[in-house]
């Protein structure tokens, strides 16, 4: 499985062509909530102090999302801001801070950040949430920040996300541990949906 | 196989007239062919900065680089200078792989054999692009 990245950490990451030219920096990551994917990126100019660009990067034009750069074929793939923003409008800004409910009706916390798979998939694999007490059986701490997988049956509205109750059994404290949990949860979901012969 | 670090600073001299044109400062690489494109010289004695096509070189010797007489010297200021040594290496996946410490090339054909980095050598045929931000390589 590909490496996982916090969407918040993508801000400022350089956008580099395969020809080795840096053409922009990531400003914001725009999400396509219903699809559970990154819709694209809004961009700033190259310098650290440069302002917003009148261009955006749709996910379809991303060659690869890497640890140190977002790779694109050439400057020509950048598009109008509307190409990205329109697609992400339904979810952008509303995912962060949204309440997370299980399909059993329990509120488990609020979304702090999204976790994206590196590479070419653009998949949102889970969320970093400020967890409520109900999530941490046996823990003495009142509130903590944990990563929770999103599952395939994600429902998103303006105010809340609904995730499978099972997902709350696959939380992790850090991104490194989260990769294994996402994989374990994915296998479990696959087991349940495929009838065994 | 010759390392760029071995020829950097060598005097560049014309074969017929023994004129010293300057010293080797950097190389340009043609990414498509995988060959050294030009040798760029630091100016000496009031000469302009210039670049010499690889095809105009007579020999790369241990103490000097000899240029064929009558070779056309490109004195136009080269576009966007790219200093290869020290440039960051990115895979096409977007992961950094250190910086270029040296370039090894075939002194006869000019073929780039490998890029040397602190994290190991990268074969020349993995080269994808070279720009002002990074040298981009195929993931091995």
From TrEMBL, chain A:
Transmembrane regions: none
Domain PRC-barrel: 4-73, 94-164
Domain of life: Bacteria
InterPro entries for the chain: PRC-brl_dom, PRC_barrel-like_sf
Signal peptide residue numbers: none
Annotated Pfam families: PRC (PF05239)
Protein name per its UniProtKB record: Photosystem reaction center subunit H
Species of provenance: Streptomyces olivochromogenes
From TrEMBL, chain B:
Coiled coil: none
Superkingdom, taxonomy of origin: Bacteria
A Pfam family recorded for this sequence: PRC
Stored SUPFAM superfamilies: PRC-barrel domain (SSF50346)
Domain PRC-barrel per the UniProt entry, residue ranges: 4-70
Protein name: PRC-barrel domain-containing protein
Biological source species: Streptomyces olivochromogenes
Species classification: Bacteria, Bacillati, Actinomycetota, Actinomycetes, Kitasatosporales
